[in-house]
Amino acid sequence: MPEQLLFAMEVTLNGLMAGVLYALVALGFVLIFKASGIFNFAQGMLVVFAAMTLVGVQTGQIPFAHLINTIFGTKIHHFGWTVPTIIAIIVAGAAMVLVAWIIEKYILQHLIGQPDIILFMATIGMWYFMHGFAPLMWGSEVMKLDVGLAQGINETIDTTTYGWFGYGFFIDNLDIVAAIVAALLVTALVLFSQYTKQGRALRAVADDHSAALSVGISLRFIWVLVWSIAGFVALVAGIMWGSKSGVQISLAEVALKALPVLMLGGFTSIPGAIIGGLIIGVGEQLFEFAIGPLVGGATQAWFAYVLALVFLIFRPQGLFGEKIIERV
Amino acid sequence: MFYREAGDFKTSYRDDNQTFPIRLDRAGYWIALFVAFCVIPFFVNDYWVNSIFAPFFIYAIAALGLNILTGYAGQVSLGTGGFMAVGAYACYKLMVAFPDVSIVFHVLIAGGITAAVGVAFGLPSLRIKGFYLAVATLAAQFFLVWLFNKVAWFYNYSASGQINAPERSVLGVVVTGPNTEAWAKYMICLVFLVVLAWVARNLTRGMTGRKWMGIRDMDIAAEIIGVNPLMAKMSAFAVSSFFVGVAGALFFAVYLGAAEAGESFGITKSFLVLFMIIIGGLGSIFGSFAGAAFMVLMPVILKNLLVGTLGWPTEIAAELEFIIVGGLIVIFLILEPHGLAQLWRLTKEKLRLWPFPH
């Protein structure tokens, strides 16, 4: 088989894996958008915040140590213990629920009935707030996240493909784990929304706010719930991204790529988020592989956005979005 | 007592429709212009110009531009940083290619080029609306910054990848390059700002502005009463991008002197200008000024207070700045979605009745 084709296949596979990560972030957006009609720009920041909290708790960092040291002249930084991974994950999850509750109580409650675009801008404000808050709480260095996931090249795939084509594919174990976790997460979400009382209430709210209110569903509870779930999804995404490239604030900008993913897949569709993620992941890797060297490389910075833009011109609601009907 | 229309008779439509209907406002406007043009230039030093006046004037131009697009025409844009980069790089290429032409023309042509790019990226707005458009403008942001970083022609193959403003003068006074005097920097930014603000004010209260506002309030309804959405949206993108391009050109040539696309015109710049118009007030010329002043002054004050007076590390001051700005955005959206401009409007209403409110 020609070498170029083999490379392209490897790139495609890696693109699929990267796409899973985009899809994980996009999933959080979709959940919130469906349930509350809020376009949550801050989802990427939630991912970073969740990951930072996880590392911070796990390594026993003292929150706001830097600030406390500056004000009181002390020299504290660590509690001096490490917390088992599973407990750290639970604590970080609880922190995300708390964040969801605070957002609902102190921001969203006061913005009910405002135009969507105002809510959108409020989430940009939240993005900014957390951009300062997260490093203030946990420090601004790159943090190493290690929750014991398999990492490095997958030997089995390497040797198998070497046997087949005479060229071993490089696939990171972590990417495979991410794909499996994403599949599990989506299954769990689908089961939750189909078979539990809260899940059904959530779907009812997504369908029609006032109808859901009239049958006695508490909107406030559902919103806290859905932001908590989005926070939990963010935590999972944060673990995957963080294990791959370390946790730092600039991760949020990479997570912005979930936006074109959403546009491609449609804002309201969970399968859309996943398929959109895969398309973007594969598309940008293949584009960089084929066209990148001709134009100077690093095309990943914009390819996803331009692809989504061009695509939207032909299909404004995305692949799986509901048809946009406008009335005067 | 002094602040009211009583006794201020208007005998023509022209008088009746003027921007400042109250005599005291008019006087204040002329005094402000007089102070800005004839008093401050004699007292400014480098620190004041570089940390307050120049960024304030330039960001005010950018905020005016974005306010035309977002506040008046209702098209949310997150690509301001990218368009500023277009203005900066266009200005740089022109300055290097035509050293004998006055820089004023370079800046204006750079604005024109940005307007063309803005229209190109604005075309999808006919099909894509709301959030989708906001995200689509991110394409402009990331693509343009990448373009200026990767295509060496734009920075004339310089080894550092930076662009450096050569020395140019207007009417014999050096306005760019390291030898610029503080007052020259101040004056060129001020002149551009005053002229552009005048243009913006008169555009937005005329037919064009009304078309934009119609599109903003409901585009289908506007279309039915005879507003051409293509022309209205494209003109909004063109005018807005022109303003932003001029701001970008001044930002690079006069204020920074040297720039690198990713660092000077990244996505944070887009957010910054968007925040200015949210805090200042969407759909208000005064709001663009107020927002720009606020967002320029706040970090300076914060830095002086925390780093200068209390001796905190700059890192914490920067993080606190993010927190305060983000928090303020949310608070403003909750308490006063129309921003500082609305607060000013309310104050004026109160002042008119003072001291006899009934």
Please characterize this protein's 3D structure:
The complex is a heterodimer of chains A (328) and B (358). Chain A is mainly alpha-helical and 328 residues long. Chain A has a domain at 27-255. Chain A has 15 helices and no strands. Chain A is globular and about 60 Å long. The N and C termini of chain A lie far apart (59 Å). Chain B has a domain at 22-262. Chain B has 15 helices and four strands. Chain B has a two-stranded antiparallel ribbon with strand order 1-4. The mean pLDDT of chain B is 88. The interface between A and B is large, with 52 and 50 residues.
The tally of beta strands of chain B, per DSSP, is 4
Q: Please bin the fraction of helical residues of chain B.
A: over 70%
Low-confidence stretches of chain A: none
Give a count of the beta strands of chain A, DSSP E runs of length 2 or more: 0
How many helices of chain B in DSSP terms? 15
Give start-end ranges of low-pLDDT stretches of chain B. none
Shape designation of chain A? globular
Largest sheet of chain B: 2 strands, antiparallel
Structural class of chain B: mainly alpha
How much helix is in the residues of chain A?
Answer: over 70%
Specify the number of helices of chain A. 15
The whole-number mean of residue pLDDT values of chain B reads 88
Short descriptors:
heterodimer, A: 328 residues, mainly alpha, 15 helices, B: 358 residues, two-stranded antiparallel sheet, 4 strands, globular
What is the compact description of this entry?
Chain A has helices spanning about 5-35, 45-60, 65-70, 85-105, 115-140, 155-165, 175-195, 195-205, 210-215, 220-245, 250-255, 260-265, 270-290, 290-295, 300-315. Chain A is mostly helical and about 325 residues long. The radius of gyration of chain A is 21 Å and the shape is globular.
Chart the SSEs and their pairings:
The complex is a heterodimer of chains A (328) and B (358).
Chain A: H1 3-36, H2 43-58, H3 65-72, H4 85-106, H5 116-138, H6 155-165, H7 173-195, H8 197-207, H9 209-214, H10 219-245, H11 251-255, H12 258-265, H13 270-290, H14 292-295, H15 300-314
Helix pairs in contact in A: 1-7, 1-8, 1-10, 1-12, 1-13, 2-4, 2-5, 2-10, 4-10, 7-8, 7-10, 12-13, 12-15, 13-15
Chain B: H1 13-16, H2 23-39, H3 46-72, H4 80-97, H5 103-122, H6 130-150, E1 163-164, E2 169-170, E3 173-174, H7 182-205, H8 207-217, H9 219-224, H10 229-256, E4 258-259, H11 261-264, H12 267-280, H13 285-309, H14 314-335, H15 339-353
Antiparallel strand pairs in B: 1-4, 2-3
Helix pairs in contact in B: 3-7, 3-8, 3-10, 3-12, 3-13, 4-5, 4-6, 4-10, 5-10, 7-8, 7-10, 8-10, 12-13, 13-14, 13-15
